[in-house]
Amino acid sequence: MFINFSNHLLSTWTEKQIKAAKEYGELEEIVFPNINPQFTTEQVQMLATDYVAKILTHYPIEKSHSTRYGRTYFLFFCCSTT
């Protein structure tokens, strides 16, 4: 599975980008939130934590190919602990 979590919707991707993403499996899209420039660091962190929780609820790592994507998950967990 490939989760596009960005402000660059799949509908704007080139055919080459879509093909490369499909090498990871089914394409899923989660629209990146608009971040209020007035948010405090704590508010941004709370929003990020909320999105991570939602992503992991809908796309649990246990059902993924963790051996194939081990480095990706390692990086994800490193970033999510800061």
List keywords for this structure.
single chain, 82 residues, alpha+beta, two-stranded parallel ribbon, 3 helices, globular
> How many angstroms does the end-to-end distance come to?
25 Å
**Structural classification:** alpha+beta
Largest sheet: 2 strands, parallel
Our Rg estimate from Cα atoms comes to 14 Å
DSSP strand tally: 2
Spans of at least 5 consecutive residues whose pLDDT stays below 50 are none
The averaged pLDDT comes out at 80
Q: What is the compact description of this entry?
A:
The chain has 82 residues and is of the alpha+beta class. It is 45% helix and 12% strand.
Give your account of this protein's structure.
- The chain is an alpha+beta fold and 82 residues long.
- The chain has three helices and two strands.
- The chain has helices at 15-22, 41-58, 70-80, and strands at residues 2-6, 27-31.
- The chain has a two-stranded parallel sheet.
- α1 (15-22) links the parallel β1 and β2 (27-31).
- The longest helix is centred in the middle third of the chain and has 18 residues, at 41-58.
- The protein is globular.
- The mean pLDDT is 80.
